[in-house]
Write a structure and sequence with these properties.
Strand content: 15-25%
Largest sheet: 7 strands, parallel
Number of strands: 13
Structural class: alpha/beta
CATH class of the largest domain: Alpha Beta
CATH architecture of the largest domain: 3-Layer(aba) Sandwich
CATH superfamily of the largest domain: Glycogen Phosphorylase B
Number of domains: 2
Shape: globular
Order of helices and strands: EHEHEHEHEHEHEHHEHEHEHEHEEHHH
Radius of gyration: 20 Å
Helix content: 40-55%
CATH topology of the largest domain: Rossmann fold
Length: 380
């Protein structure tokens, strides 16, 4: 049996990986190895490792200490994670490592795998996010990887332009879109009960992460967004909290303070989980913030995205995405556009550029065939 090792460090990442994990787990010729780290193991981020353990066997748990989220602390955290991941790989001896995305945790994972000459299969390479350090990290992981799973042909072409072997680059679509298509979402009543909150006449789902390359502090960024939201009348807000980037803690503190001050119209979650998150999109008027989900997945559910600032700048976008600056007036303009009748017609007819068929199955088969055809494959 070929040993396929998958790492996950965040709630969003795990949600995307789930169909691929099931594909690997269900193949009798493959052995799934699962390493859980990052915010999954922290109570302040929802201790989401418990959800994972309900579905899969976790082979290794690696605690990351995130008492502070300044630059130096995150660098120290990355160094320790690389050491711990090296020990885990040495013990598990995987035939290939699967890494999704562009977060700093995954750069530590990729570096450890590369130095141990374990081939890497990278998901979501070739993309551009000009407002975050993730952009550089994503490209660095691409150069360390052996197989590349792009979510659009544009991104596949970019990976090839970066010098990667075209025979190892595959346009398979986005896992998140596949998840949505396969999922039976909650009814409105079921969703309201699940979050213990009654939706209003108008509703917004808000997820804002620090724009790590911005000249504005995370606090100032969040202040601009909250002022813009406060201008909306008869509107409820469902917040999902920021991840463990530099400045994430202050944003989450501000969200908690806002919800405490406005309990009748706002509720916040460290993690909604995939079912509640996608169900929420179904019942809100728009998804607001700067999460990659607003670009990759929300268009499939025929809902508008108000994409704030430059964190996702450069990604291929559907016509249902409204871009605005990290300024309260421009955010207000975009929020008003959500209710424009002509724009709503566009949203209802939009097709996501990330849609494809059998994304997770294609990935699994490519990985399996690669390992079976070429024994002892090394990083290119």
């Amino acid at each position: 049996m070929k040993k396929i090792c998958v790492e996950t460090a965040t709630r969003a990442e795990y949600g995307l990986l789930k169909p691929l994990l099931y594909q690997i787990h269900g193949d009798k010729e493959l052995q799934l190895q699962l390493i859980v780290t990052g915010t999954h193991l922290l109570e302040e981020f929802g201790a989401t490792y418990k959800e994972i353990e309900n579905e899969f066997v976790v082979d290794k748990k690696i605690v990351m200490y995130l008492d502070n989220d300044d630059k130096a602390s995150l660098s120290h955290t990355m160094a320790q994670l690389q050491k711990d991941i090296t020990d885990a790989f040495t013990d598990l001896s995987p035939d290939i490592v699967i890494i999704l995305g562009d977060r700093y945790e995954m750069l530590s994972v990729a570096t450890a795998a590369f130095m141990l000459q374990i081939p890497i299969a990278h998901i979501h390479g070739g993309e551009t996010t000009q407002g975050a350090i993730d952009d550089s990290i994503r490209h660095a992981i691409t150069k360390l990887s052996y197989l590349h799973f792009a979510s659009t042909q544009t991104y596949a072409d970019k990976i090839v332009q970066m010098g990667e072997d075209p025979n190892k680059v595959f346009n398979v679509g986005a896992l998140g879109v596949e998840n949505i298509k396969a999922m039976k979402l909650l009814s409105r009543d079921e969703f309201e009960q699940s979050i213990n909150f009654t939706l209003h006449k108008k509703n917004m789902l808000v997820t804002y992460h620090p724009q790590t390359l911005s000249t504005l502090s995370a606090k100032k960024q969040m202040q601009e967004l909250l002022v813009a939201l406060e201008a909306l009348e008869e509107t409820a807000f469902i917040f999902t909290k920021a991840n463990a980037d530099e400045g994430g803690k202050i944003i989450n503190k501000m969200i908690d303070e806002y919800v405490k001050k406005h309990p009748q119209k706002a509720v916040a979650f460290s993690s909604l989980g995939q079912l509640r998150y996608f169900s929420a999109i179904k019942y809100v008027d728009a998804v607001v913030g700067n999460s990659s989900s607003g670009i990759l997945e929300v268009p499939t559910l025929k809902r508008p995205t108000v994409n704030i600032g430059d964190r996702q700048k450069g990604r291929v976008q559907a016509k249902s995405v409204l871009n605005c600056k990290m300024e309260r007036e421009d955010i207000m303009r975009a929020l008003k556009q959500v209710y424009n009748k002509e724009f709503q017609k566009i949203v209802k007819s939009v097709k996501s550029p990330y849609e494809a068929n059998n994304t997770s199955k294609k990935m699994k088969e490519i990985i399996k065939n690669t390992l079976c055809v070429k024994q002892g494959v090394k990083n290119g």
